[in-house]
Amino acid sequence: QVQLVESGGGWVQAGGSLRLSCAASGRTFSTYAMGWFRQAPGKEREFVARISWSGATTYSTDSVKGRFTISRDNAKNTVYLQMNNLKPEDTAVYYCAAGSDFWGQGTQVTVSS
Questions:
Q1: Helices marked H in the chain — which ranges?
Q2: Tens-place pLDDT, residues 69-79
């Protein structure tokens, strides 16, 4: 069992930065690939970025490439999403996930133009 708690969301102007954190409980965190997803109002949840269990491999959706960076610290049971050059279309609730099994409660990111 893995419990996930996101933090770091908030309000920012376009062009600004935020760093999201996802703290995990449970001894098996380091065995999971971790992902970030987001859901904007009226839209379906979409994939943002993914990182392998070791951190050696990352992948992100085209719309955030060059702006968002996913990373993890297995010693701290935490995965991060560094978001730079934010755009209004990045406004959404951001969720972290451990594999496809466990999800956090989400953190709101609002980007104003």
A1: none
A2: 999 999 999 99
